[in-house]
Amino acid sequence: MNFPRLPIEKFDENGLLQAFYINHFSEHLKKYHSDITHPHKHDFYLTVFFTSGKGRHDIDFTSYPIRQNAVFFLQPEQMHHWEFEADAEGWILFHSEDFYKFYSAHFELYLWPFFQSRNANPFLEIDSETAEKLSSRFIEMMAEYQENTAHSFLKIASLTQLIYSDLSRIYAEKEHDSNVVKNNRYQDHFHRFTTLLNQQYVHHKNPSDYASQLAITTKHLHRVCLACSGKSTSQLIAERIILEAKRKLISEPKSISEIANELGFENTPYFHLFFKKHCGETPKQFRIKNS
Question: N or C: which end of the chain has fewer CB within 10 A?
Fold first, then answer.
């Protein structure tokens, strides 16, 4: 089984070349149903707001409920798919990192708490009053997207910022107990760490490897990770390795020994122990269960 990676250009139906897309979720579902009900990845940032519906949204091997006033945030390379028990309606928008940077030069994407790292909670529930306000912003954005007149995408980018701002406040309040922080320096260190981690987890598995590259102490990196994610540096490194191991085990027809080697483990028995310690089952058991 291979998981497709859907580029944002696939959804550029009008040839706008703006690396931005918005639609009613039901309309989006009609056009791309065969793609989104099977596990897949994207190369863009995605937000979905449900005004109705029932089902399940699986993101990187974790399931979340689909229901009224649920909001989901996805980052590039996250694997996900949808399963519905009842018709769903709402809004979907997504954009590339370049689109965001072009129109939002003074606020980095990773400063929004839901895009801070791959460990950020991708699920948020909002109240009816917020949902009504959010719907009006999406309606206004959709009108600009369809009209595509002078400065439409400047306005769309501004509305995107307003949506993120509204949702960020609620998200930060709900995630307060998980140590979501406002310290921009900590967030910058954490973003740089997770970027390095995604690039180097195969070859670097010790916190000190990353601390030295960031020119901070291992203890300080530990404080940064706890403050930004509620998890230690070692936990985050292990979770990134396990996530990639799971992806390979169910999507690549390679032996477990080959996968262990590709993930930088010196021998297969150690990979078995590492996987079982963090998942409660062996790589073989996980593969059989998810085949």
Answer: C
3-state secondary structure (DSSP) of residue 198: helix
How far apart (Å, rounded) are the C-alpha atoms in residues 49 and 69?
A: 7
Q: What is the Cα–Cα distance from 286 to 244, expressed in whole angstroms?
A: 13
Q: Which residue has the tokens 């009108």?
A: 143
HEC assignment per residue over 11-48: HCCCCCCCCEEEEEHHHHHHHHHHHHCCCEEECCEEEE
CA distances from 200 to 14, 117, 126, 214, 272 (A): 38, 16, 36, 13, 21
Residue given tokens 């999507």 in the structure block: 251
pLDDT digits (tens, 9 = 90+) for 172-182: 888 754 444 55
pTM of the model: 0.79
| Rounded CA separation 276/21 (Å) | 41
- What is the rounded average pLDDT of the residues 4-28? 80
* The pairing of beta strand 5-6 with beta strand 41-42: parallel
Structure tokens at 153: 């995408």
